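Milestone M4 deliverable, item 7.
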Amino acid sequence: MAGSVVLDSPVHPVTEGQDVILTCRCNDRDSTCGLASTFYKDGVMAGSGVGRVLTLHNVSVCDEGFYACEIIGSGKSPESWLTVQGLPPAGRDPPALPDLLLLYHLLVGMPFLVCTLMVGLLYRDRGEVTSCITLRGGEERRGGE
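Output delivered:
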């Protein structure tokens, strides 16, 4: 029954400190599939017992490697690679959300504020120019009458 046992493991890298669950299962719907399983890491036994689940608590980069499982009477799974990523350096935390919101508000709000002030100044100056023209025009009309 080669190939009938499958190890379910994370497809994507996991981060240090997380718990990882490995599950050993029979690929076919064979009711004779046993419950007892043995797990291997890099070819060395990593755990066994009744049940088909192995939980790796608080993983580290040392837990990275090839994992496989065997169900007695049903066969052994192909090896599956588990990748563990280290934690990011403590000094390089990503920017906090409030920092990003402040930056967003500055980038959006400042051009709006500048445009509003410019329009206000132009409108104010336009009013003075219009009143000067009106006065001059009015004076000329009065003078020409």
